[in-house]
């Protein structure tokens, strides 16, 4: 089974594909074909580690969730295309299962600098994508974007975690189907003065908890908390106070051990 939809599935009104995300093979059955176009760069061979199936009810639930969030924020609700809603539903179902394979979804912008991954997290609107864009401008061809919005982390028994690209890459659509050893995670805060400070795993833990996907399944959530504990053993953590000038990236690079010369 590959990434393209299969004729038998199409005849039944369903579409099928096998994909590898964070090194985990996932069989996806969907109502619409668009999700398979989205995942085509991650097509895989062999046996699936697990399967996900999306129904019309799953798609409707994503719209309802969007409506609830809009009501809480006091903004008009937006009616989304059903194919986009299904893409969200597929990734949500995948994220629910990944902790059982030592992997998890995290909200952040991830870069690979000569094979080392640096992940930047922040509240929406803080400017993490702006900051990683400054890194790309300063370091030029030494940098490759992994994922600008929702990368995956896989925590191994020994050694650093692995950071993986996914096609779920935010409004700028910046991602690559690559992986890199995770070197550091930085939490960004706006500031008129550029300063990057190391923080302890204890300080980082509640900040990480705000950024990782929280599974609805209690066992999967417990596994996620365990993975976060293991993540700190081989990862450096920083707080990056920054503005939106190139000096912000230069300051962070120096503090995090990246030679920008």
Describe the protein.
- By secondary structure, the protein is an alpha+beta fold.
- It has eight helices and twelve strands.
- The strands form two sheets. Strands 4, 5, 6, 7, 8, 9, 10, 11 and 12 form a nine-stranded mixed beta sheet that branches. A three-stranded mixed beta sheet has the order 1-2-3.
- A hairpin with a 7-residue loop joins strand 8 and strand 9.
- The longest helix is centred in the N-terminal third of the chain and has 18 residues.
- The chain is globular.
Number of strands: 12
Secondary-structure element series: HEEHEHHEEEHEEEEEHHEH
Largest sheet: 9 strands, mixed
Distance between the termini: 46 Å
β content, as a range?
25-35%
Give the low-confidence spans.
1-11
Would you kindly provide a brief summary of this structure?
The protein is α+β, with helices and mostly antiparallel strands and 261 residues long. It has helices at residues 7-11, 34-38, 56-73, 82-97, 128-139, 201-211, 218-231, 246-255; strands at 15-21, 24-30, 50-53, 103-105, 109-113, 116-121, 143-147, 152-154, 162-164, 179-190, 195-199, 236-242. Helices cover 35% and strands 26% of the residues.
List the helices and strands and how they pair.
Layout: H1 7-11, E1 15-21, E2 24-30, H2 34-38, E3 50-53, H3 56-73, H4 82-97, E4 103-105, E5 109-113, E6 116-121, H5 128-139, E7 143-147, E8 152-154, E9 162-164, E10 179-190, E11 195-199, H6 201-211, H7 218-231, E12 236-242, H8 246-255
Parallel strand pairs: 2-3, 6-10, 10-12
Antiparallel strand pairs: 1-2, 4-8, 5-6, 5-7, 8-9, 9-10, 11-12
């Amino acid at each position: 089974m590959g990434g393209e939809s299969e004729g038998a599935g199409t005849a039944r009104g369903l579409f099928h594909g096998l994909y590898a995300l964070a090194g985990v093979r996932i069989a996806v059955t969907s109502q619409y074909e668009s999700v398979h176009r989205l995942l085509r760069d991650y097509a895989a061979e062999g046996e699936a580690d697990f399967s996900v199936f999306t129904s019309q009810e799953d798609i409707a639930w994503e719209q309802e969730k969007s409506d609830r969030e809009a009501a809480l924020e006091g903004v008009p609700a937006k009616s989304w295309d059903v194919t986009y809603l299904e893409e969200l539903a597929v990734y949500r179902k995948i994220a629910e299962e990944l902790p059982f394979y030592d992997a998890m979804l995290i909200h952040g912008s991830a870069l690979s600098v000569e094979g080392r991954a640096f992940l930047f997290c922040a509240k929406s609107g803080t400017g993490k994508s702006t900051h990683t864009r400054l890194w790309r401008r300063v370091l030029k061809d030494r940098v490759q974007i992994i994922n600008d919005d929702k990368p995956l982390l896989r925590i191994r028994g020994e050694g650093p975690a692995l950071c993986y690209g996914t096609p779920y890459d935010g409004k700028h659509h910046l991602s690559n189907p690559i992986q890199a050893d995770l070197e550091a995670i930085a939490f960004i805060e706006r500031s008129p003065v550029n300063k990057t400070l190391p923080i302890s795993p204890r300080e980082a833990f509640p900040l990480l908890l705000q950024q990782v996907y929280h599974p609805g399944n209690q066992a999967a959530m417990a596994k996620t908390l365990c993975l976060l504990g293991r993540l700190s053993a081989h990862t450096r953590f920083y707080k990056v106070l920054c503005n939106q000038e190139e000096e912000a990236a230069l300051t962070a690079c120096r503090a995090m051990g990246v030679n920008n010369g």
